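To the team - zinc ion complex, inputs and output below.
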Amino acid sequence: MDETCIVSADVVVESSARVIADGAIAWQGDTIAAVGTREELCDVYPKAEHQTLEGRAIFPSFVNAHTHLCLSHLHGAAPYDGNFAAWLQTVLHAILEWSEEDHANSLAEGLQQSLATGTGAAADILNDRLALPAYRGLPIGGTVFLQVTGFNPVVADVWMANIQQAFADLPNGADLGNLSLGISPHAPYSTSAKLYRECFRFAEEHDLLLMTHLAENTSEEDFLRRGTGVYRRMLRERGTWVPKWKPPDMTPVEYFEAEGVLTDRCIYAHVNYPSSSDIDLMAKRGITAVYCPRSHAFFHHAPHRMDEMVAAGIRVALGTDSLASNDSLGMLDEVKLCRERFPRMSAETIFDAGTIRGAEALRVTDKYGTLGPGKKASFVVVDVGEPVDASRAMEQLLSPESTIDQVFAWGQPIP
Ligand SMILES: [Zn+2]
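Output:
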């Protein structure tokens, strides 16, 4: 059996519901054996290798509920001037130039940054499935979502054949470590209703998760209402416009509902512009929405309605989005900006959005999102910039002064 290791700290936050003063974590190999007070664990494991971290607090690793790690080399490459479609075109053009190796290197960089900043599990969208080996052997969990896109319904069959091949190539021996494979139809303005329905049908059949972009900006509703605006221009420029397509004249959320693709099997990124009735509908369907605070700020969106969504009973998780619209992949910066934007929301709600909510959406609560026996020994050691106070440790984590001191992933310190 693996040797037992213990770290103890002034405070261990096992979950938002359980904060332990003078706490400790004991683990064997990559798995937590126990979480309790320093005294308790020293009694149970007297021979364990014990590291004491003075003046520090330990939190579960974060769960990044929406990212595109393979775009990490695009940091700063696509400035935003108010036209999202133009920004997206710049991103798409840039990756068209990439070799398979460039793609893999960009992904590897994103993975490395994620681990170093305390992400334990991620919902990551991958453009090129040939880059999949980059995930192998890394102490990270969650789902890799293969992106599919195509506005012309005639390409749906080609994409589905491609997806079937990808899953056939990666049976049980997929060797993606602790990651699962999922599907990501891109967005309502880039992907046909037919391709959406097929992806959902395939995911249902194989019990897979999905992720998509939804109501990211106001142009999306213009497009679905009237078939006009920047997305129509973008599709025409790309030669994928479908002249006989009729706009459904609905909000993006209503459109998904009408197509049967608003379900709890899917994670919906952004949802920056829901109507109040959209919020009710999403709550009824039990969906997960992902707010990406810094990417949201990058695109100068109107205030997010996360607080109303949470109040309505929607599961809202947090994500970084890609480095093409963010300065880092650090989830600590996301929870901090979320706190700044929603000063009246409880620290627990925001902390949960950065940890357990994403784990629930990814169906990995047995391993990530909180600390506890049987879960992965993935956690962050934080200097909160003042003496740690168990009664407000989560608030201290969200304060501008907190910094990550050390990251452990699967029981190993990340350099
Ligand atoms: Zn995205």
